[in-house]
Amino acid sequence: MKGIEVGEDDIRIGAGVTYSEFALILRAHLPEAVDYLLRIGNWQVRNAGTIGGNIANGSPVGDLAPALIALGAELELRRADRLRTLPLEKFFLAYRVQDREPGEFVRRVTVPKLAPTQVFRCFKVSKRFDEDISAVMGAFTLTLDGHAIAAARVAFGGMAAVPKRAAETEAALVGARLDEPASWDEALTAITRAFQPITDQRASAAYRAVVARNLVFKALTEIAGGDGRTSRLVGQCVTLQAAE
Fold first, then answer.
1. pLDDT, tens digit (0-9, with 9 covering 90-100), for 75-101
2. Where is the FAD-binding PCMH-type domain (predicted)?
């Protein structure tokens, strides 16, 4: 439950692994996600909170699920000596309802490594930069063929009752070119139809819809520019260091 296994093609993370421990692994294998992970809570939360706890909580604004779904993660559930594996996106059925049988618990998450032709971006939008619950999260994995997008996985949190992929937006991205921003228009329109967000204390439905569209544009702009940090605000200076 507390182990991390780095394989040739994937990373297997025990449910008891903390955010801070996960961040150390991501620094080497998925650096694009480290800044995102360091937006979760504060140091105390990241040192105590776990990957499995975030997922099992089932919140529609949980920070990890959209990123892991965009990466194609699989979830391993256990009950006694019975193991069951399913795509993470299939785990969330409705608001606070999960595909989890009585007695089952989250045992492990398996995250595929990016292929050389793939790029990843993820974003968290909240009222405060640190120590705040998200209003919207967006995560994007694109498979590239030169400047053309050959495949896409796009997932959002805070836009529906569960963390959810934007299938129409994914389809619209296929064939778009990073060097031709006009080819992004169909995807930018599709994301406005993908969700029916609610208004709550964190954000209005109208704000969420605008933010979702802007995050699609932001991801494409960053990937086209080749530098994932150029359009980011940077919080406090942090250094990740393994325990002695």
1. 999 999 999 999 999 999 999 899 999
2. 1-116
